[in-house]
Structure formats: structure tokens, C-alpha cells
Design brief:
2 domains; fatty acid metabolism; four-stranded mixed β-sheet; 16% strand; Lyase 2-enoyl-coa Hydratase, Chain  A, domain 2; alpha/beta; disordered C terminus
Length: 286
């Protein structure tokens, strides 16, 4: 049985073996308070350390008409009451932003792939959230906005750090970040923010994302976590550095029994897919 680590703002379920569905569920519009983003980060960090055999995760909203309205400014913890001397206030604010960034970046720290399935409105922080995921699918009814400039901020939780790395059209990315104008799922696909647009709404995009997660979960977990790890390394290092690191990584990982099983299945042209054991052993119950 899966461990249910759902919290007050996030629902977690297991729709199929080795796959988790994480649903944002703070009424009415998934606006984020300090408590909400802290719970979000904790959920992913907990899943990464559990002995459960999790191999892929889908992130979506529990509400049919919206993914996230972004930050709940009224619900955020206030910095009032601290020493207002500028340097000290700046230090406290910086620490708060870093904690916020770390929570929203939690899917990137997970060893397994995380798929974002978005629909309805994806505003401000909603884009920070999906930018830290491995794969992004959008329903055709989705509307996005990098909203921060409209409230007097530069986006500071992940959007501006990730967009140059995950999108192909830098001119369009800058236009959207500078203007905060809404853009459609079709334009998000043109930007490279999403890899697939699904006709329909929440139900359709979640179903498609879960189907993808199920395929990922059927692969060797050794191969999948290695692929994610090496892709992230490649993003932040030169080609030569990544090739050297990959040689070291795979020097150990090619010893896996998974490789033998996959190769044998391919050679024999078996119609039965190989079954790969979990990365970590699950302790037996006493």
C-alpha cells in the first residue's frame, strides 16, 4: 500500500503502479501562501526519500477550471515586525526567497521524472512550478501569464532561471516576461514551454499525462533516474564535462541487471515487457 502523505493543501493518490498523482487543492484557486509552498516542497522531498517504488509523478490541480492563480499576497507571512533597518530586512527577505525557491524546485531534486498536467489558468507562480518539472502537457483550454511585472516584481522563484534553459524562442520568452500578457496553450507550445497540447480540459490532460507516466514507470528505474540526472548535469555543464561525468556514472550503472533483462527481451523479441525491480528494497513488515 502507498503511504498517503497528503496534506491540507495537496492530495496524493496512486492511480496506477509506481505512479503518483499530486493535486494542488487549496480552495478556491490554488493561490499559494507560505504554508502551501512549504507543504509542496515537503511532499516532493518526502517522496524522494520514501522506500516506496515511485517511478514517475504527475502534478495537476484538483480544480477543473484553474491550475494556480499564483501567490496569495494577503495570505503570505508578513515581514512586518522585523527590524526595518534596510540591510537586515534585505537579509531576511533574501532568506525567505531562497526557502521559497527551494520548495518550488523540489520536483527537480526528485530522482524520478515529474510531469506537469496543466489546464485553465496558470498565473505567475504557476509557471514557476511547471518550469521545475521534467515534462509539461497543457490542455487546450489553458491560459498562461508570467504575471510578476504587473505587481511590480521580477519573477524570482524559478521562471526566469528556467525559461532560457527549457524554451527555444528567447524573443517570445522575453516578450511574455516583460509584458505579462496572457498566452494560450498553442503559444506555450510554440515557445517550447509545453511539449504537447491536449484537446479538452483537466480530465483529458491528466489522463494523457498519467498514460505517459505509466510508460516511464515501465522502463528500467536505473536507466530513467540516470537519464534525468545526466540531463540536468548537461544543462549546467559543458559537453566535454558532461561526457566525462557520464562515463563515470555509467561505469557503475551498466553493471545493472536491468541492462541484461532489457537486452535479452530485445534479442528474443519477447512480447512480454521485462519487469524491473525497485531501486530500493521495501522493508518487510513484522
Amino acid at each position: 500500500m502507498a503511504v498517503d502523505n497528503s496534506g491540507p493543501f495537496i492530495k496524493i493518490s496512486s492511480p496506477c503502479p509506481n505512479v503518483r498523482l499530486v493535486e494542488l487543492a487549496r480552495k478556491p484557486v490554488n493561490a499559494f501562501t507560505d504554508e502551501f509552498w512549504a507543504e509542496y516542497g515537503r511532499v516532493f522531498d518526502d517522496m524522494a526519500t520514501l522506500t516506496e517504488d515511485i517511478r514517475a509523478v504527475v502534478v495537476s490541480s484538483a480544480f477543473p477550471k484553474i491550475f494556480s492563480a499564483g501567490i496569495d499576497f494577503q495570505g503570505l507571512s508578513s515581514l512586518d515586525g522585523h527590524d526595518t533597518e534596510p540591510a537586515r530586512l534585505g537579509y531576511i527577505t533574501r532568506r525567505h526567497i531562497l526557502e521559497f525557491q527551494r520548495a518550488i524546485s523540489a520536483p527537480e531534486r526528485c530522482p524520478f521524472p515529474v510531469v506537469a498536467a496543466v489546464h485553465g489558468m496558470v498565473i505567475g507562480l504557476g509557471i514557476d512550478i511547471i518550469a521545475a518539472c521534467d515534462i509539461r502537457y497543457a490542455a487546450s483550454d489553458t491560459t498562461f501569464s508570467i504575471k510578476e511585472v504587473d505587481v511590480g516584481l521580477a519573477a524570482d522563484i524559478g521562471t526566469l532561471a528556467h525559461l532560457p534553459k527549457i524554451t527555444a524562442n528567447q524573443s517570445l520568452a522575453r516578450e511574455l516576461a516583460y509584458t505579462a500578457r496572457p498566452f494560450s496553450s498553442a503559444e506555450a507550445e510554440k515557445l517550447g514551454l509545453v511539449s504537447k497540447v491536449i484537446d479538452g480540459g483537466r480530465e483529458a490532460v491528466v489522463r494523457e499525462a498519467l498514460a505517459l507516466a505509466k510508460v516511464i514507470a515501465s522502463k528500467s528505474p536505473v536507466a530513467v533516474i540516470g537519464t534525468k540526472h545526466l540531463l540536468l548535469h548537461a544543462r549546467d555543464h559543458s559537453v566535454a564535462e558532461n561526457l566525462e561525468y557520464t562515463a563515470i556514472w555509467n561505469g557503475a550503472m551498466v553493471q545493472s541487471q536491468d541492462l541484461k533483462e532489457a537486452v535479452n527481451a530485445g534479442i528474443s523479441k519477447s512480447k512480454t515487457l521485462p519487469v524491473f525491480p525497485p531501486l530500493r528494497s521495501v522493508p518487510s513488515k513484522l
